[in-house]
Design goal:
Elements: H1 3-33, E1 37-51, E2 56-60, E3 66-71, H2 74-77, H3 85-89, E4 96-100, E5 108-112, E6 123-128, E7 132-136, E8 141-146, H4 149-152, H5 155-160, H6 162-170, E9 183-192
Antiparallel strand pairs: 1-2, 1-3, 1-9, 3-4, 4-5, 5-6, 6-7, 7-8, 8-9
């Protein structure tokens, strides 16, 4: 092998090594850039609460909550090991979920679909188990929305005590707000955890 051929071979070899190293660095950076779990902290919250004393909805101050947003695992869906598998079976496309933070057996509060092929691949929407949500992967901002309380107010009394409900209506009495829930929206930011 001549000197120039050897130099070319070394040059090709050096380029290949540099390319492989760059590819490895890219893959490592990409793995770091896409965490499988976030700690999400509410920064702002607003809502309404039904006041049983005055029978009216009124503004409500909320404490700043925390959530875990994480990728679902095979164990989450496992019928023997997964505590909440029945909730997840109803949404086979779900691959992320918001969970209670700090609980020993956290319940999924909202189940999400992260579809990298979607037009809005940088964000994903979450269906309600308890609340609806949205998460943006680039800004790491999130929103949670709990709604439907005004519509479902009194549902449990109509369902659990239908005779009492019908009796009250026949006498022109209002349906008491049994098991009222709050209406709220929360805004916050997530960080990898």
């Amino acid at each position: 092998m001549t000197g120039s051929a050897r130099a070319r071979a070394l040059s090709v070899y050096a380029c290949a090594v540099a390319w492989i190293a760059t590819l490895g660095l890219f893959m490592a950076t990409r793995a770091v850039a896409e965490p499988s779990q976030y700690l999400c902290v509410v920064k702002e919250a607003a809502g309404l609460q039904y006041g049983s004393q005055n029978s009216a909805w009124q503004p409500q101050a909320f404490e700043m909550r925390k959530y875990t947003l994480r990728r679902l695992t095979d164990d989450d869906r496992n019928h023997q090991r997964g505590k909440w598998w029945a909730l997840l079976d109803k949404a086979p496309e779900a691959n992320w979920a918001f969970f209670e933070f700090g609980s020993d057996t956290p319940m999924p509060l909202s189940i999400c679909v992260d579809d990298p092929k979607s037009v809005l691949a940088e964000r994903f929407s979450c269906k309600s188990v308890v609340f609806d949500g949205v998460f943006d992967k680039e800004s790491r901002r999130f929103e949670t929305i709990y709604h439907g309380s005004h519509i479902s107010q009194g549902f449990f009394s109509r369902r659990e005590h239908p005779e009492q409900y019908k009796y009250r209506l026949s006498r022109g009495q209002e349906d008491p707000a049994s098991h009222p829930d709050d209406l709220f929206i929360e805004l916050g930011k997530c960080s990898p955890s």
